[in-house]
């Protein structure tokens, strides 16, 4: 069952393993946007917002902008910046792939934010549920790094992979992988 | 005959095939097979999303993934092909420029330090073109491997001590993959280069990614190592997108080169599930074959 969420998100009841979709507004933010948010503040009010780790392909049309492809990018690149972003801008949701570190998880727990894992590379699935490009900021950073504002309907499916109670699917998988790695290394006489 | 336009058009078409419409069948088959064997529901849902995305790309003729990569070309020149070699480089670059504008592709190529993006996917040494001579052949063959950053960023080179031997190689492949696989958009392919010098090891690791899924190294001992590493990696439980499950890699391809008696280089180059590549040949009379 897919939980259909709307922005601004109410995240306290979400837990890891939940499958969700989002209807509302999401903001793309990658490395350069994160840096500039911290240096200059935000051109829009991000309180309660969902940010999307994504560098889309977008093209200009007569009516404005059309999104060509928009899947998630590797979230761990933003690890060192995200806790401060969550705190300062009161971000409620982060969409990305691969998960984030312990400090980001702590910030999520403290300020109320969830991490939503989207299938990496599935850029056209995402496009299907983007209804409109509402705005773009900081286009001088280049197409992938600019902050794109998307209106989305049933954007997903996504898996809640880190929640506000400090639960983290990636940490669970990591523990399992470490246990199995030791076992396999013993079996192959590599230990 | 002037091959400039032929090469340019072929380059454009190869990028379109690889990135949008002609997803490699061996990879799609392997993904479909993986769903049947997978018992983790989250990984299953990721594999379903991937297959749906491949279908959408075919239907809409748009890029499968927004990371349309940087473009690595492997050009093989038949020794019997009469062609002005000097034009190949520019013709390929023109094809990349056109594909970037028309398909369109994401402009990924930036200066490494200033991070300035010319918006063209052409820059210093990019696209990168490897050249090779094919003795006695009468055609020019071009393969494009668009390489996304998610998987490429997890690459590594380790200069082992020869005393660490085969077990050291296995241990390194396993431990590195255990740590990094979740970020390469799995299920993907592990390309391993063993031997040569530092640069050669990484180059053959990348070439290993071009081999079809299920293919094995001609040397039986290395083929066995490929099987052993694939089984071991898929037993780790990393799963699609690192969310847990039995489908972590579709294959492990290992290539070897002779090395210095005091060296044991091991390079790992990962490929994401979107294992996009396309190959075409140009014959002397201008005929094209895919």
TrEMBL record, chain A:
Domain of life, per lineage: Archaea
Keyword Lyase: yes
Molecular function in Gene Ontology: hydro-lyase activity
Gene3D superfamilies on file: Fe-S hydro-lyase, tartrate dehydratase beta-type, catalytic domain
Pfam families found in the cross-reference section: Fumerase_C
Annotated keywords: Lyase
Domain Fe-S hydro-lyase tartrate dehydratase beta-type catalytic residues, every copy: 9-172
Presence of keyword Lyase: yes
Residues spanning the membrane: none
Entry's family note: Belongs to the class-I fumarase family.
Name by which UniProt lists this protein: Fumarate hydratase
Species for this entry: Methanoliparum thermophilum
Lineage, broadest ranks: Archaea, Methanobacteriati, Methanobacteriota, Candidatus Methanoliparia, Candidatus Methanoliparales
């Amino acid at each position: 069952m897919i939980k259909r969420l709307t922005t601004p998100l109410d995240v306290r009841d979400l837990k890891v393993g939940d499958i969700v979709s989002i209807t509302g507004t999401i903001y793309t933010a990658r490395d350069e946007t994160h840096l500039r948010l911290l240096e200059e503040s935000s051109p829009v009010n991000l309180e309660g917002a969902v940010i999307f780790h994504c560098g889309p392909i977008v093209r200009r049309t007569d009516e404005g902008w059309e999104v060509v492809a928009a899947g998630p990018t590797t979230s761990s690149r933003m690890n060192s910046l995200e806790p401060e972003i969550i705190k300062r801008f009161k971000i409620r949701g982060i969409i990305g792939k691969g998960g984030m570190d312990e400090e980001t998880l702590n910030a999520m727990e403290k300020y109320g934010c969830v991490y939503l894992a989207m299938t990496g590379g599935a850029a056209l699935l995402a496009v299907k549920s983007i209804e409109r490009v509402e705005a773009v900021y900081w286009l001088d950073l280049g197409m992938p790094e600019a902050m794109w504002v998307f209106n989305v309907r049933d954007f997903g499916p996504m898996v809640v992979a880190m929640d506000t109670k400090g639960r983290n699917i990636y940490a669970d998988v990591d523990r399992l992988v470490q246990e199995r790695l030791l076992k396999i290394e013993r079996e192959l006489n590599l230990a | 005959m002037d091959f400039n336009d032929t090469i340019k058009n072929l380059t454009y078409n190869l990028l379109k095939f690889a990135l949008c419409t002609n997803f490699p069948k061996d990879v799609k088959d392997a993904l479909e097979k993986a769903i049947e064997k997978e018992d983790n529901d989250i990984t299953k849902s990721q594999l379903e999303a991937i297959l749906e995305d491949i279908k959408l790309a075919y239907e809409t003729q748009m890029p499968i993934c927004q990371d349309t990569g940087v473009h690595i070309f492997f050009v093989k020149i038949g020794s019997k092909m009469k062609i002005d070699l000097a034009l190949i480089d520019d013709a390929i670059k023109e094809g990349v420029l056109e594909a970037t504008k028309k398909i369109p592709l994401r402009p990924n190529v930036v200066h490494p330090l200033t991070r300035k993006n010319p918006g063209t996917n052409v820059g210093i040494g990019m696209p990168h073109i490897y050249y090779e001579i094919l003795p006695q052949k009468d055609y020019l063959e071009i393969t494009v491997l668009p390489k996304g950053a998610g998987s490429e960023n997890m690459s590594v080179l380790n200069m082992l001590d020869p005393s660490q031997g085969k077990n050291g190689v296995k241990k390194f492949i396993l431990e590195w993959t255990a740590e990094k696989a979740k970020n390469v958009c799995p299920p993907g392919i592990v390309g391993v280069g063993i031997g040569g010098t530092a640069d050669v090891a990484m180059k053959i690791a990348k070439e290993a990614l071009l081999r079809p899924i299920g293919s094995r190294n001609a040397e039986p001992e290395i083929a066995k190592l490929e099987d052993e590493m694939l089984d071991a990696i898929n037993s780790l439980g990393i799963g699609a997108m690192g969310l847990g499950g039995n489908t972590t890699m579709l294959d492990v391809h290992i290539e070897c080169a002779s090395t210095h008696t005091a060296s044991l280089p091991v390079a790992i180059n990962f490929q994401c599930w979107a294992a996009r590549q396309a190959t075409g040949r140009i014959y002397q009379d201008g005929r094209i074959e895919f």
